[in-house]
Amino acid sequence: MFLDYENPLVGRYASVSMSRLWGSQRKFGTWRRLWLALAESEAELGLPVTPAQIEELRNHLDDIDFEKAAEYEAELRHDVMAHVHTYGDVCPNARPIIHLGATSCFVTDNTDAILLREALILIRNRLAAVIDRLGRLAWKYRDLPCLSFTHLQPAQPTTVGRRVCLWAYDLILDLAEIEHRIEKIKTLGNKGTTGTQASFLKLFNGNHEKVRQLERLFCAKIGMESFAVTGQTYPRKMDSQILDVLSGVAQSSHKFAVDLRLLAHRKEMEEPFETQQIGSSAMAYKRNPMRSERICSLSRFVMSLQTSPPVTAATQWLERTLDDSANRRLVLPQAFLALDAVLILYQNIAEGLVVYPKVIEKNLRSELPFMATENILMAAVERGGDRQELHERIRRHSQAAATVVKTEGGENDLLNRIRNDPAFAGINIDAESEASAFIGRSPEQVDELIAEQIEPIRRRYEDILTLVNAEVRV
Fold first, then answer.
1. Which site among 22, 117, 164, 380 is 20 to 30 Å from 374 CA-CA?
2. CA 153, CA 156: separation in Å to the nearest integer?
3. Annotated catalytic residue: which of 15, 280, 391, 433?
4. 358-438 CATH choice from 1.10.40.30, 1.10.150.130, 3.40.50.200, 3.30.70.1130
5. 151 labelled catalytic
6. What superfamily in CATH does domain 104-193+233-354+449-467 come from?
7. Interval 4-31: pLDDT, tens
8. For 1-100, which CATH superfamily applies?
9. Model-level pTM?
10. Across-strand partners of 146?
11. Catalytic status, residue 297
Protein backbone atom coordinates (compact mmCIF):
# COMPACT_ATOMS: atom_id res chain seq x y z
CA MET A 1 0.00 0.00 0.00
CA PHE A 2 1.30 3.45 -0.88
CA LEU A 3 0.56 6.38 1.41
CA ASP A 4 2.06 9.80 0.84
CA TYR A 5 3.42 10.58 4.29
CA GLU A 6 5.06 13.72 2.90
CA ASN A 7 1.54 15.11 2.62
CA PRO A 8 0.81 16.58 6.08
CA LEU A 9 -2.85 15.62 5.78
CA VAL A 10 -1.75 11.98 5.61
CA GLY A 11 1.39 11.99 7.71
CA ARG A 12 0.22 14.36 10.45
CA TYR A 13 -3.53 14.93 10.62
CA ALA A 14 -5.93 12.42 9.05
CA SER A 15 -6.75 8.92 10.25
CA VAL A 16 -5.17 5.82 8.78
CA SER A 17 -8.57 4.65 7.52
CA MET A 18 -9.23 7.85 5.57
CA SER A 19 -5.64 7.97 4.31
CA ARG A 20 -5.85 4.40 3.04
CA LEU A 21 -9.12 5.14 1.31
CA TRP A 22 -7.47 7.87 -0.76
CA GLY A 23 -4.16 6.01 -1.19
CA SER A 24 -2.81 4.66 -4.44
CA GLN A 25 -3.33 1.01 -3.51
CA ARG A 26 -7.03 1.50 -2.92
CA LYS A 27 -7.51 3.63 -6.02
CA PHE A 28 -5.80 1.35 -8.50
CA GLY A 29 -7.00 -1.79 -6.77
CA THR A 30 -10.52 -0.48 -7.35
CA TRP A 31 -9.70 0.09 -11.03
CA ARG A 32 -8.84 -3.59 -11.32
CA ARG A 33 -12.02 -4.62 -9.53
CA LEU A 34 -14.04 -2.53 -11.96
CA TRP A 35 -12.33 -4.17 -14.94
CA LEU A 36 -13.10 -7.55 -13.37
CA ALA A 37 -16.78 -6.62 -12.82
CA LEU A 38 -17.01 -5.42 -16.42
CA ALA A 39 -15.49 -8.63 -17.77
CA GLU A 40 -17.79 -10.78 -15.63
CA SER A 41 -20.83 -8.84 -16.82
CA GLU A 42 -19.78 -9.09 -20.47
CA ALA A 43 -19.20 -12.83 -20.12
CA GLU A 44 -22.62 -13.33 -18.55
CA LEU A 45 -24.19 -11.61 -21.54
CA GLY A 46 -22.41 -13.79 -24.09
CA LEU A 47 -19.33 -11.82 -25.13
CA PRO A 48 -16.17 -13.90 -25.77
CA VAL A 49 -14.69 -13.59 -22.26
CA THR A 50 -13.61 -16.94 -20.82
CA PRO A 51 -13.75 -18.19 -17.23
CA ALA A 52 -9.96 -18.61 -17.33
CA GLN A 53 -9.50 -14.95 -18.25
CA ILE A 54 -11.82 -13.86 -15.44
CA GLU A 55 -10.00 -16.05 -12.94
CA GLU A 56 -6.68 -14.58 -14.04
CA LEU A 57 -8.01 -11.07 -13.48
CA ARG A 58 -9.34 -12.08 -10.06
CA ASN A 59 -5.96 -13.48 -9.01
CA HIS A 60 -4.15 -10.20 -9.59
CA LEU A 61 -6.36 -7.52 -8.03
CA ASP A 62 -3.84 -6.15 -5.55
CA ASP A 63 -0.34 -7.06 -6.73
CA ILE A 64 0.14 -3.72 -8.46
CA ASP A 65 3.61 -2.91 -9.74
CA PHE A 66 3.60 0.86 -9.28
CA GLU A 67 7.11 1.28 -10.68
CA LYS A 68 6.12 -0.50 -13.89
CA ALA A 69 2.94 1.59 -14.12
CA ALA A 70 5.01 4.76 -13.75
CA GLU A 71 7.31 3.61 -16.56
CA TYR A 72 4.33 2.97 -18.83
CA GLU A 73 2.80 6.33 -17.99
CA ALA A 74 6.05 8.15 -18.75
CA GLU A 75 6.02 6.48 -22.16
CA LEU A 76 2.30 6.61 -22.96
CA ARG A 77 1.39 9.87 -21.16
CA HIS A 78 -1.88 8.22 -20.12
CA ASP A 79 -2.48 6.91 -16.59
CA VAL A 80 -5.37 4.57 -17.43
CA MET A 81 -3.58 2.90 -20.33
CA ALA A 82 -0.46 2.62 -18.19
CA HIS A 83 -2.42 0.55 -15.68
CA VAL A 84 -4.15 -1.44 -18.43
CA HIS A 85 -0.69 -2.50 -19.64
CA THR A 86 0.55 -3.14 -16.08
CA TYR A 87 -2.48 -5.33 -15.37
CA GLY A 88 -2.05 -7.06 -18.72
CA ASP A 89 1.57 -7.93 -17.91
CA VAL A 90 0.45 -10.13 -15.00
CA CYS A 91 -2.70 -11.30 -16.81
CA PRO A 92 -1.38 -12.16 -20.30
CA ASN A 93 -4.34 -14.38 -21.20
CA ALA A 94 -6.84 -11.74 -20.14
CA ARG A 95 -4.94 -8.83 -21.72
CA PRO A 96 -7.16 -8.72 -24.86
CA ILE A 97 -10.38 -8.24 -22.89
CA ILE A 98 -9.21 -5.79 -20.18
CA HIS A 99 -11.13 -2.51 -20.55
CA LEU A 100 -13.26 -4.01 -23.36
CA GLY A 101 -15.63 -1.36 -24.70
CA ALA A 102 -14.76 1.10 -21.96
CA THR A 103 -13.29 4.58 -21.87
CA SER A 104 -10.93 6.01 -19.27
CA CYS A 105 -13.72 7.53 -17.23
CA PHE A 106 -15.17 4.07 -16.77
CA VAL A 107 -12.48 3.39 -14.17
CA THR A 108 -11.73 6.92 -12.97
CA ASP A 109 -15.31 8.09 -12.39
CA ASN A 110 -16.72 4.83 -11.11
CA THR A 111 -13.79 4.61 -8.69
CA ASP A 112 -14.29 8.19 -7.54
CA ALA A 113 -17.98 7.54 -6.87
CA ILE A 114 -17.16 4.45 -4.80
CA LEU A 115 -14.50 6.27 -2.80
CA LEU A 116 -16.68 9.34 -2.28
CA ARG A 117 -19.47 7.23 -0.86
CA GLU A 118 -17.15 5.36 1.49
CA ALA A 119 -15.46 8.59 2.56
CA LEU A 120 -18.85 10.13 3.33
CA ILE A 121 -19.68 7.10 5.46
CA LEU A 122 -16.44 7.55 7.42
CA ILE A 123 -17.27 11.22 7.99
CA ARG A 124 -20.84 10.30 8.95
CA ASN A 125 -19.59 7.82 11.55
CA ARG A 126 -17.17 10.31 13.09
CA LEU A 127 -19.87 12.96 13.14
CA ALA A 128 -22.26 10.64 14.98
CA ALA A 129 -19.52 9.95 17.54
CA VAL A 130 -18.93 13.67 18.15
CA ILE A 131 -22.66 14.28 18.56
CA ASP A 132 -22.82 11.45 21.09
CA ARG A 133 -19.94 12.96 23.11
CA LEU A 134 -21.48 16.42 23.03
CA GLY A 135 -24.75 14.95 24.25
CA ARG A 136 -23.00 13.51 27.28
CA LEU A 137 -21.33 16.85 27.95
CA ALA A 138 -24.62 18.73 27.63
CA TRP A 139 -26.31 16.37 30.09
CA LYS A 140 -23.49 16.75 32.63
CA TYR A 141 -23.77 20.54 32.66
CA ARG A 142 -27.45 20.89 31.77
CA ASP A 143 -28.21 23.23 34.70
CA LEU A 144 -24.88 24.98 35.35
CA PRO A 145 -25.68 28.69 34.83
CA CYS A 146 -23.23 30.74 32.82
CA LEU A 147 -23.09 34.14 31.25
CA SER A 148 -24.21 34.21 27.63
CA PHE A 149 -23.22 36.75 25.01
CA THR A 150 -24.86 38.52 22.12
CA HIS A 151 -22.64 40.83 20.04
CA LEU A 152 -19.92 39.45 22.36
CA GLN A 153 -21.49 41.54 25.12
CA PRO A 154 -22.93 40.03 28.32
CA ALA A 155 -26.53 38.92 27.84
CA GLN A 156 -29.22 36.91 29.61
CA PRO A 157 -27.68 33.84 31.28
CA THR A 158 -27.86 30.38 29.79
CA THR A 159 -26.35 27.09 30.99
CA VAL A 160 -23.16 25.37 29.94
CA GLY A 161 -25.20 22.37 28.82
CA ARG A 162 -27.43 24.45 26.62
CA ARG A 163 -24.44 26.13 25.00
CA VAL A 164 -23.08 22.66 24.20
CA CYS A 165 -26.46 21.89 22.61
CA LEU A 166 -25.92 24.75 20.18
CA TRP A 167 -22.73 23.08 19.01
CA ALA A 168 -24.37 19.67 18.86
CA TYR A 169 -27.40 20.83 16.91
CA ASP A 170 -25.26 22.34 14.17
CA LEU A 171 -23.71 18.91 13.70
CA ILE A 172 -27.10 17.21 13.84
CA LEU A 173 -28.19 19.34 10.89
CA ASP A 174 -24.95 18.45 9.09
CA LEU A 175 -25.50 14.76 9.76
CA ALA A 176 -28.91 14.89 8.08
CA GLU A 177 -27.32 16.44 5.00
CA ILE A 178 -24.59 13.79 4.88
CA GLU A 179 -27.12 10.96 5.23
CA HIS A 180 -29.10 12.46 2.35
CA ARG A 181 -26.01 12.78 0.17
CA ILE A 182 -24.97 9.15 0.86
CA GLU A 183 -28.43 8.00 -0.13
CA LYS A 184 -28.39 10.00 -3.38
CA ILE A 185 -24.84 9.35 -4.58
CA LYS A 186 -24.66 7.61 -7.96
CA THR A 187 -21.98 6.37 -10.30
CA LEU A 188 -21.17 6.63 -14.01
CA GLY A 189 -21.92 3.04 -14.97
CA ASN A 190 -21.12 1.99 -18.56
CA LYS A 191 -21.69 5.08 -20.68
CA GLY A 192 -18.88 5.07 -23.21
CA THR A 193 -16.87 7.93 -24.65
CA THR A 194 -19.63 10.54 -24.89
CA GLY A 195 -22.34 8.89 -22.82
CA THR A 196 -24.10 7.28 -25.79
CA GLN A 197 -22.90 3.70 -25.05
CA ALA A 198 -22.02 3.38 -28.75
CA SER A 199 -18.98 1.15 -28.12
CA PHE A 200 -21.04 -1.30 -26.07
CA LEU A 201 -23.81 -1.26 -28.66
CA LYS A 202 -21.16 -2.24 -31.24
CA LEU A 203 -19.95 -5.11 -29.03
CA PHE A 204 -23.49 -6.46 -28.77
CA ASN A 205 -24.19 -6.08 -32.51
CA GLY A 206 -26.82 -3.40 -32.03
CA ASN A 207 -28.72 -5.18 -29.23
CA HIS A 208 -29.95 -2.26 -27.12
CA GLU A 209 -31.41 -4.44 -24.40
CA LYS A 210 -28.12 -6.22 -23.80
CA VAL A 211 -26.40 -2.86 -23.41
CA ARG A 212 -28.98 -1.95 -20.79
CA GLN A 213 -28.53 -5.32 -19.10
CA LEU A 214 -24.76 -4.84 -19.07
CA GLU A 215 -25.05 -1.62 -17.09
CA ARG A 216 -27.55 -3.15 -14.67
CA LEU A 217 -25.29 -6.18 -14.10
CA PHE A 218 -22.20 -4.05 -13.62
CA CYS A 219 -23.90 -1.66 -11.20
CA ALA A 220 -25.26 -4.57 -9.18
CA LYS A 221 -21.75 -5.96 -8.84
CA ILE A 222 -20.34 -2.68 -7.50
CA GLY A 223 -23.43 -1.99 -5.38
CA MET A 224 -24.35 1.42 -6.79
CA GLU A 225 -26.94 2.91 -9.11
CA SER A 226 -25.84 4.81 -12.20
CA PHE A 227 -26.93 8.23 -13.37
CA ALA A 228 -29.74 8.15 -15.91
CA VAL A 229 -27.81 10.15 -18.50
CA THR A 230 -24.26 11.51 -18.61
CA GLY A 231 -21.64 12.87 -20.94
CA GLN A 232 -18.27 11.16 -20.78
CA THR A 233 -18.17 11.70 -17.00
CA TYR A 234 -20.72 11.59 -14.24
CA PRO A 235 -22.24 15.04 -13.61
CA ARG A 236 -19.68 17.17 -11.80
CA LYS A 237 -22.61 18.69 -9.93
CA MET A 238 -22.34 15.71 -7.58
CA ASP A 239 -18.85 16.80 -6.51
CA SER A 240 -20.18 20.27 -5.84
CA GLN A 241 -23.03 18.92 -3.72
CA ILE A 242 -20.64 16.77 -1.70
CA LEU A 243 -18.23 19.63 -1.05
CA ASP A 244 -21.16 21.76 0.10
CA VAL A 245 -21.89 19.15 2.77
CA LEU A 246 -18.25 18.88 3.84
CA SER A 247 -18.01 22.65 4.05
CA GLY A 248 -21.10 22.67 6.25
CA VAL A 249 -19.44 20.33 8.76
CA ALA A 250 -16.30 22.48 8.63
CA GLN A 251 -18.37 25.61 9.33
CA SER A 252 -19.96 24.00 12.39
CA SER A 253 -16.62 22.76 13.65
CA HIS A 254 -14.98 26.14 13.16
CA LYS A 255 -17.76 27.84 15.13
CA PHE A 256 -17.30 25.41 18.02
CA ALA A 257 -13.53 25.88 18.06
CA VAL A 258 -13.79 29.68 18.04
CA ASP A 259 -16.31 29.56 20.89
CA LEU A 260 -13.99 27.35 22.90
CA ARG A 261 -11.05 29.66 22.27
CA LEU A 262 -13.14 32.59 23.55
CA LEU A 263 -14.17 30.62 26.63
CA ALA A 264 -10.56 29.58 27.24
CA HIS A 265 -9.66 33.27 27.18
CA ARG A 266 -12.24 33.77 29.94
CA LYS A 267 -10.77 30.73 31.76
CA GLU A 268 -14.20 29.07 31.87
CA MET A 269 -13.30 26.05 29.72
CA GLU A 270 -10.21 24.42 28.31
CA GLU A 271 -9.47 21.71 25.82
CA PRO A 272 -7.54 18.70 27.18
CA PHE A 273 -3.96 19.56 28.14
CA GLU A 274 -1.50 16.70 28.63
CA THR A 275 0.81 16.48 31.64
CA GLN A 276 3.96 16.95 29.55
CA GLN A 277 2.37 19.17 26.89
CA ILE A 278 4.21 22.40 26.05
CA GLY A 279 1.98 25.39 25.35
CA SER A 280 4.70 27.73 24.10
CA SER A 281 8.40 27.36 23.32
CA ALA A 282 9.05 30.76 24.90
CA MET A 283 6.36 31.25 27.55
CA ALA A 284 6.39 28.15 29.72
CA TYR A 285 3.23 29.07 31.63
CA LYS A 286 0.97 29.12 28.59
CA ARG A 287 -1.82 26.62 27.84
CA ASN A 288 -2.54 27.51 24.23
CA PRO A 289 -5.76 26.01 22.75
CA MET A 290 -3.82 24.35 19.94
CA ARG A 291 -6.43 21.69 19.14
CA SER A 292 -9.12 24.32 18.67
CA GLU A 293 -6.76 26.45 16.65
CA ARG A 294 -5.97 23.48 14.43
CA ILE A 295 -9.68 22.82 13.94
CA CYS A 296 -10.08 26.40 12.76
CA SER A 297 -7.09 26.12 10.46
CA LEU A 298 -8.17 22.86 8.83
CA SER A 299 -11.85 23.87 8.69
CA ARG A 300 -10.92 27.06 6.90
CA PHE A 301 -9.03 24.95 4.38
CA VAL A 302 -12.07 22.72 3.77
CA MET A 303 -14.34 25.74 3.36
CA SER A 304 -11.93 27.24 0.83
CA LEU A 305 -12.01 24.03 -1.23
CA GLN A 306 -15.76 24.41 -1.63
CA THR A 307 -15.22 27.04 -4.33
CA SER A 308 -13.57 24.74 -6.89
CA PRO A 309 -16.24 22.06 -7.59
CA PRO A 310 -19.00 24.56 -8.51
CA VAL A 311 -16.68 26.23 -11.01
CA THR A 312 -15.66 22.83 -12.38
CA ALA A 313 -19.30 21.78 -12.76
CA ALA A 314 -20.13 25.05 -14.49
CA THR A 315 -17.31 24.80 -17.04
CA GLN A 316 -17.69 21.25 -18.35
CA TRP A 317 -17.91 22.05 -22.06
CA LEU A 318 -20.52 20.04 -23.90
CA GLU A 319 -19.87 16.31 -23.27
CA ARG A 320 -16.73 16.95 -21.19
CA THR A 321 -13.41 18.74 -20.90
CA LEU A 322 -10.27 17.60 -19.11
CA ASP A 323 -9.66 20.72 -17.03
CA ASP A 324 -11.60 19.04 -14.22
CA SER A 325 -9.08 16.26 -13.75
CA ALA A 326 -6.15 17.84 -11.92
CA ASN A 327 -8.48 20.00 -9.84
CA ARG A 328 -10.54 17.02 -8.66
CA ARG A 329 -7.41 14.96 -7.88
CA LEU A 330 -6.46 17.68 -5.39
CA VAL A 331 -9.79 18.89 -4.02
CA LEU A 332 -11.72 15.69 -3.35
CA PRO A 333 -9.14 13.73 -1.32
CA GLN A 334 -7.85 16.77 0.54
CA ALA A 335 -11.31 17.90 1.60
CA PHE A 336 -12.06 14.51 3.14
CA LEU A 337 -8.63 14.09 4.72
CA ALA A 338 -8.77 17.55 6.30
CA LEU A 339 -12.33 17.15 7.58
CA ASP A 340 -11.49 13.72 8.98
CA ALA A 341 -8.71 15.39 10.96
CA VAL A 342 -11.10 18.10 12.15
CA LEU A 343 -13.57 15.55 13.54
CA ILE A 344 -10.83 13.55 15.25
CA LEU A 345 -9.81 16.74 17.05
CA TYR A 346 -13.43 17.64 17.79
CA GLN A 347 -14.10 14.24 19.36
CA ASN A 348 -10.90 14.41 21.39
CA ILE A 349 -11.88 17.80 22.80
CA ALA A 350 -15.46 16.76 23.52
CA GLU A 351 -14.23 13.71 25.44
CA GLY A 352 -11.76 15.65 27.57
CA LEU A 353 -13.20 19.15 27.81
CA VAL A 354 -12.33 20.80 31.12
CA VAL A 355 -14.98 23.03 32.70
CA TYR A 356 -14.30 25.40 35.59
CA PRO A 357 -17.60 25.99 37.46
CA LYS A 358 -16.11 28.40 40.01
CA VAL A 359 -14.72 30.68 37.32
CA ILE A 360 -18.01 30.46 35.43
CA GLU A 361 -19.88 31.45 38.59
CA LYS A 362 -17.48 34.31 39.30
CA ASN A 363 -17.83 35.68 35.77
CA LEU A 364 -21.60 35.38 35.91
CA ARG A 365 -21.75 37.12 39.28
CA SER A 366 -19.77 40.03 37.91
CA GLU A 367 -22.58 40.81 35.46
CA LEU A 368 -25.64 39.29 37.10
CA PRO A 369 -26.36 42.25 39.43
CA PHE A 370 -27.18 44.44 36.46
CA MET A 371 -29.52 41.76 35.08
CA ALA A 372 -31.15 41.19 38.48
CA THR A 373 -32.23 44.80 38.88
CA GLU A 374 -35.47 44.30 36.96
CA ASN A 375 -36.52 41.45 39.27
CA ILE A 376 -35.58 43.53 42.31
CA LEU A 377 -37.47 46.53 40.97
CA MET A 378 -40.64 44.51 40.39
CA ALA A 379 -40.42 42.92 43.86
CA ALA A 380 -40.12 46.36 45.47
CA VAL A 381 -43.06 47.70 43.46
CA GLU A 382 -45.16 44.74 44.61
CA ARG A 383 -44.41 45.81 48.18
CA GLY A 384 -45.91 49.25 47.48
CA GLY A 385 -42.94 51.19 46.22
CA ASP A 386 -43.07 53.94 43.57
CA ARG A 387 -41.72 52.44 40.35
CA GLN A 388 -40.28 55.66 38.97
CA GLU A 389 -38.50 56.55 42.19
CA LEU A 390 -37.16 53.00 42.58
CA HIS A 391 -36.04 52.97 38.95
CA GLU A 392 -34.09 56.18 39.49
CA ARG A 393 -32.38 54.79 42.58
CA ILE A 394 -31.34 51.63 40.71
CA ARG A 395 -30.07 53.74 37.82
CA ARG A 396 -27.82 55.78 40.13
CA HIS A 397 -26.59 52.69 41.96
CA SER A 398 -25.86 50.93 38.63
CA GLN A 399 -23.82 53.85 37.32
CA ALA A 400 -21.84 54.06 40.54
CA ALA A 401 -21.14 50.31 40.49
CA ALA A 402 -20.11 50.47 36.83
CA THR A 403 -17.65 53.23 37.67
CA VAL A 404 -16.07 51.05 40.33
CA VAL A 405 -15.73 48.17 37.88
CA LYS A 406 -14.55 50.09 34.82
CA THR A 407 -12.41 52.90 36.20
CA GLU A 408 -11.18 51.46 39.49
CA GLY A 409 -10.99 47.79 38.56
CA GLY A 410 -13.04 46.84 41.59
CA GLU A 411 -15.75 44.22 42.12
CA ASN A 412 -19.33 44.85 41.10
CA ASP A 413 -20.95 46.04 44.36
CA LEU A 414 -24.36 46.91 42.91
CA LEU A 415 -26.29 44.38 44.98
CA ASN A 416 -24.72 45.63 48.19
CA ARG A 417 -25.63 49.19 47.28
CA ILE A 418 -29.24 48.16 46.69
CA ARG A 419 -29.26 46.00 49.82
CA ASN A 420 -28.19 49.02 51.92
CA ASP A 421 -30.78 51.36 50.37
CA PRO A 422 -33.82 51.76 52.70
CA ALA A 423 -36.12 51.97 49.68
CA PHE A 424 -35.49 48.24 49.11
CA ALA A 425 -35.85 47.14 52.72
CA GLY A 426 -37.55 43.79 53.05
CA ILE A 427 -36.57 42.59 49.59
CA ASN A 428 -34.67 39.29 49.52
CA ILE A 429 -31.88 40.50 47.26
CA ASP A 430 -30.12 37.12 47.20
CA ALA A 431 -33.27 35.29 46.10
CA GLU A 432 -34.02 37.85 43.40
CA SER A 433 -30.46 37.57 42.05
CA GLU A 434 -30.21 33.77 42.12
CA ALA A 435 -28.65 32.70 38.83
CA SER A 436 -31.05 29.80 38.26
CA ALA A 437 -33.90 32.31 38.06
CA PHE A 438 -32.47 33.76 34.85
CA ILE A 439 -31.76 30.68 32.71
CA GLY A 440 -35.30 30.14 31.46
CA ARG A 441 -35.90 26.65 30.05
CA SER A 442 -32.23 25.92 29.45
CA PRO A 443 -32.11 22.61 31.40
CA GLU A 444 -35.38 21.46 29.90
CA GLN A 445 -34.19 22.33 26.38
CA VAL A 446 -31.09 20.21 26.97
CA ASP A 447 -33.28 17.30 28.03
CA GLU A 448 -35.50 17.73 24.98
CA LEU A 449 -32.63 17.91 22.49
CA ILE A 450 -31.04 14.78 23.92
CA ALA A 451 -34.33 12.87 23.93
CA GLU A 452 -35.66 14.03 20.58
CA GLN A 453 -32.49 14.46 18.50
CA ILE A 454 -29.43 12.81 20.02
CA GLU A 455 -30.96 9.59 21.34
CA PRO A 456 -32.37 8.65 17.89
CA ILE A 457 -28.89 9.16 16.44
CA ARG A 458 -27.40 6.98 19.17
CA ARG A 459 -29.91 4.24 18.41
CA ARG A 460 -29.38 4.54 14.66
CA TYR A 461 -25.60 4.27 15.00
CA GLU A 462 -25.41 2.08 18.09
CA ASP A 463 -23.11 -0.49 16.50
CA ILE A 464 -20.93 2.16 14.91
CA LEU A 465 -20.51 4.13 18.12
CA THR A 466 -19.04 1.08 19.80
CA LEU A 467 -16.48 0.73 17.00
CA VAL A 468 -15.49 4.33 16.26
CA ASN A 469 -12.19 4.82 17.97
CA ALA A 470 -10.60 8.11 16.98
CA GLU A 471 -7.05 7.78 15.65
CA VAL A 472 -5.91 10.88 17.45
CA ARG A 473 -2.91 12.81 16.21
CA VAL A 474 -3.09 15.90 18.39
1. 164
2. 10
3. 280
4. 1.10.40.30
5. yes
6. Fumarase/aspartase (Central domain) (1.20.200.10)
7. 555 778 878 889 999 999 999 999 999 9
8. Fumarase/aspartase (N-terminal domain) (1.10.275.10)
9. 0.88
10. 158
11. no
